[in-house]
Write a structure and sequence with these properties.
Layout (H helix, E strand, L loop, with lengths): L5 H5 L3 H34 L10 E4 L6 H11 L6 E3 L6 H6 L7 H11 L7 E3 L7 H14 L4 E6 L4 H11 L5 E6 L14 H18 L9
Parallel strand pairs: 1-2, 1-4, 2-3, 4-5
Helix pairs in contact: 3-5, 6-7, 7-8
């Protein structure tokens, strides 16, 4: 910056120009701050999406958040949206615990018990193969099972904050392999309007945002197997 001098005082244009530049910088800073605040406040609601319900071949319970996802799937089954409920199967932590001599019933085992408790007949519950590690695996397995069943659509049941990433993964990983109706568990406690108030909601938002960014980047980050 040039030093202030008598030349500046004698130049009637210099001061207004500096004032305008300062005003522009202030406006940019204020706009950036407001934009950042809007993104911060709205990111929770942006992550939550749902598709209109319709009759499908199967209702898929994505791994995690027991028992709310299974309870929601059972409700949709009772309302007649599908004749079957499909569960994904993860080998962990069962494989690791087995090596330690510690028995562990898999997550799909407990989800099966929840579904039966909620009125789904055992014969309507199916475990999908092969085993999964992450949500991308679940999407691929669900699409493969849909193709085997010669169906055209499935309902994917997950938690609220997870819905957008699930929808994006289906569209990216299995385009043209049937339609996915993404639904959130209605009893999920996630608060999209005030997600920063609890550590669990805040951690969920951070994880999902990173997951979406990873997917947009072409999934360069992959889980350890």
């Amino acid at each position: 910056m040039r030093p202030f001098s008598m030349a500046t005082l004698n130049n009637p244009i210099a001061v207004p120009r500096r004032s305008r530049a300062l005003g522009v910088f202030c406006a940019i800073g204020t706009g950036s701050l407001l934009l950042g605040l809007l993104i911060f406040l709205g990111i929770g609601r942006w992550l939550v999406v749902e598709d209109p319900l319709g009759k499908v071949k199967g209702i898929v319970v994505l791994s995690g958040a027991m028992p709310v996802r299974a309870i929601e799937a059972a409700r949709l089954y009772r309302e007649g949206y599908a004749p079957e409920v499909w569960l994904t199967h993860s080998r962990e932590p069962a494989d690791t615990l087995q090596k330690m001599g510690i028995p562990f019933a898999s997550e799909d085992h407990y989800n099966t018990l929840v579904l039966i408790h909620e009125g789904v007949p055992a014969e309507a519950i199916h475990i999908l193969e092969p085993p999964i590690v992450n949500t991308a695996d679940e999407v691929r397995v669900a699409a493969l099972s849909l193709a085997r069943a010669k169906g055209d659509a499935v309902i994917l049941v997950t938690t609220k904050v997870h819905t957008r990433r699930v929808r994006l993964l289906w569209r990216r990983l299995v385009p043209g392999q049937g339609r996915a109706i993404v639904r959130a568990a209605s009893s999920d406690s996630f608060d999209p309007r005030h997600w920063w108030r609890t550590t669990s909601d805040a951690l969920d938002v951070v994880r999902e945002v990173l997951g979406v960014l990873n997917m947009w980047a072409g999934l360069p980050l992959r889980p350890a197997r």
